[in-house]
Structure formats: structure tokens, C-alpha cells
Design a protein that fits this description.
Blueprint lengths: L4 E12 L2 E13 L4 E5 L6 H8 L7 E6 L2 E2 L5 H11 E5 L10 H6 L9 H14 L15 H14 L4 E5 L7 H16 L3 E6 L2 H4 L4 E6 L2 E7 L4 H14 L1
Parallel strand pairs: 3-8, 3-9, 6-7, 7-8
Antiparallel strand pairs: 1-2, 1-4, 4-5, 9-10
Helix pairs in contact: 4-5, 5-6
Bound molecules: adenosine-5'-diphosphate (ADP) and magnesium ion.
Length: about 240
């Protein structure tokens, strides 16, 4: 079985005037089906750049990216768009819901271009909303929902296309800590159900909910292993267990 995600010697270099910013400085990483990985690091360490490359929203300066065994490094924009649509689900800090569309229309968005009939789109979107417990809000507009509910809609949208990988960039960043914990419990449940989740966060207590930590500093991986092996995350994990009894 090929790895689901395989990054090899990935560099992303931005030219700023006469200096170069090495946003990613030689990242190699493999992720397999069913994993729950947190990519952790402080602001500016390169997390979002890494997520954008894994999510086919950006391409590396050099290095290779294989997704499910296929080398997609040199794919065109259109080919990358198709990969995004078929294989990837996104959850963003600011939910990125379209305000003028109803909840169910938002959840249907990833299905629009997949050759799925209207009727099936609605059924699949409704099934995704049921999974996040928001079936009754299908006809509401996003603004009529709380922040936590809007993030659950965005999770439903990510699930609707039945993606191989769910990418979540600071999914709790805009939420209060209680609602954030709920969203994390939900991601853990999705992982137990077999979904592969890549979570991006600067917050060690959020990262503690994952099974594997990839810590990035200055565009390099400085730790890759279980939660217990990363001192900062392990402390937060212990504190979280105390809190919840
Ligand atoms: N479009 C860009 N142009 C120039 N520099 C960038 C750009 N995007 C990111 N960077 C730089 O790359 C580094 C990593 O950024 P980023 O991946 O956003 O980090 P993080 O998500 O961990 O905060 C930072 O130094 C940032 O300033
Ligand atoms: Mg970021």
C-alpha cells in the first residue's frame, strides 16, 4: 500500500526583495490512511505553507509530493483542482462559509462539480449535516448559527465529498475554549470512524488531541512521533486529562 501523503525534500522559498524566506526548508513526511496528525509550531514556522501544499492549494519550489502513490508534483492547476475536489476536505479557522447560501447549499458545494445529480447532492449534504447534528438548520443562513455551529457546517462540507484526507487549519482558532473542545472531540470521533485527519495548530493543548505530532520550526521538522514524545504537547495532554476527569 502506498502512503496516503508522501512529501519528499519539500522546499518553499519566497523571494522578498534581495532576501529569501525559506518557508519550508526540506520537509519529508509520510502520512497513512486512518492517522490523526497534528502539525504544530509557532506563528511563522511554516504550518500553513505545509497545509497549502498538502492541500494542493500551492506548489513547492522543489521536492516531490505523492498523494496515494501518484506523483502530483507537476500537475497543472486544473489537475490540482480536480485532486482537491475528489480527495481533500478543508476546514478553516474562519469557516469560509458563503453567507448568501443556506447551510445545505454550502455543504453541497464540493459536490457541484463531481457529476452528482441534484437529488443525490442534497441527500449526501443532508447525510453530512446529520453527522454533525445540524440537520434541522439546513435551510438557515450561516449568520443565523453560532460560531461552533458554523464550524460544524464547515466540517459537514468537508465530509460531503467523502475525502481521503481532511485538512483542518487552526479549526478552533475562532472559537471559545469550550466550543473548541467540542469541535476537537468531533474530529477525534471522525478519526475513530476511519477518516484521516491532518490538523494544523500553534496550540499545544489542541495538538494533544491528535495521535501523532509533527513539530515544525523555521520550516523544518524538529519532532515527528507520538504525543508523549513532545514535551510541550504531552504536558497539555496530561492537564487535559485532569480537567476532564
Ligand atoms: N506569500 C508569501 N510571501 C512571502 N513570505 C511568505 C508568504 N507566505 C508565507 N510567508 C512566510 O513564510 C513563513 C511561513 O509562513 P506560514 O506558513 O504562514 O507560517 P505559519 O502558518 O506557521 O504561521 C513566514 O516567515 C511567512 O512570513
Ligand atoms: Mg498559519
Amino acid at each position: 500500500m502506498p502512503h496516503l501523503v508522501e512529501l519528499k525534500d519539500i522546499y518553499k522559498i519566497y523571494h522578498m526583495g534581495d532576501s529569501d524566506v525559506h518557508a519550508l526548508d526540506g520537509i519529508s513526511l509520510t502520512i497513512d490512511k486512518g492517522e490523526f496528525v497534528a502539525i504544530v509550531g509557532s506563528s511563522g514556522s511554516g504550518k500553513s505553507t505545509c497545509m497549502n501544499i498538502i492541500g494542493c492549494l500551492d506548489v513547492p519550489t522543489s521536492g516531490t509530493y505523492k498523494l496515494n502513490g501518484k506523483d502530483i508534483t507537476n500537475y497543472t492547476d486544473n489537475e490540482l483542482a480536480e485532486v482537491r475536489n475528489k480527495m481533500l476536505g478543508f476546514i478553516f479557522q474562519q469557516y469560509n462559509l458563503i453567507p448568501k447560501l443556506t447551510v445545505i447549499e454550502n455543504v453541497q458545494l464540493p459536490l457541484l462539480y463531481g457529476g452528482v445529480s441534484d437529488r443525490e447532492q442534497r441527500q449526501r449534504a443532508m447525510a453530512a449535516l446529520r453527522r454533525v447534528g445540524l440537520e434541522s438548520k439546513a435551510k438557515n443562513l450561516p449568520a443565523q448559527l453560532s460560531g461552533g455551529q458554523q464550524q460544524r457546517v464547515s466540517i459537514a462540507r468537508a465530509l460531503a465529498g467523502d475525502p481521503s484526507v481532511i485538512l483542518a487549519d487552526e479549526p478552533t482558532g475562532a472559537l471559545d475554549s469550550k466550543t473548541g473542545r467540542e469541535v476537537m472531540r468531533f474530529l477525534q470521533q471522525l478519526n475513530r470512524e476511519g477518516n484521516t485527519i491532518i490538523l494544523i495548530t500553534h496550540d499545544n493543548s489542541i495538538a494533544a488531541r491528535a495521535s501523532r505530532i509533527v513539530r515544525v520550526t523555521d520550516g523544518k521538522i524538529v519532532y515527528d512521533g507520538p504525543v508523549e514524545g513532545d514535551k510541550n504537547v504531552a504536558l497539555q495532554a496530561a492537564a487535559g486529562r485532569d480537567e476532564e476527569g
